[in-house]
Amino acid sequence: EDLHVAVSGGFLSVHQDDQVAVLAEEAELASDIDTAAAREELNRTEGDEGADAAAARDWALSRLRAAGEQV
User: In 9-40, which positions are buried (b, 16+ CB within 10 angstroms) versus exposed (e)?
Assistant: First the structure.
């Protein structure tokens, strides 16, 4: 079974027995992602400059990709 998760910050470790451990600052299951809100955030930050806008844009893109949306 595949599990899709949007993850921000942290790291992951893949073990030889196909186990994966994730330590993340923020994570959201694909099934919990509000794609309309993520797309709205992406559109809202389009053209904005600065680190905060870039971080918000990146998180919105990650959420949309994890949810299987085309971006």
Answer: eeeeeeeeeeeeeeeeeebbebeebeeeebbe
Res. 10: pLDDT tops 90 = yes
How wide is the angle at C-alpha 45 spanned by C-alphas 58 and 70, nearest 5°? Answer: 55
Instruction: Return the structure tokens found at 9.
Output: 């910050």
List all residues 6 or more positions away from 42 whose beta carbon is below 8 Å from its beta carbon.
57, 60, 61, 64, 71
> Can you give the pTM of this predicted structure?
0.83
53 sits in which H/E element: helix 51-66
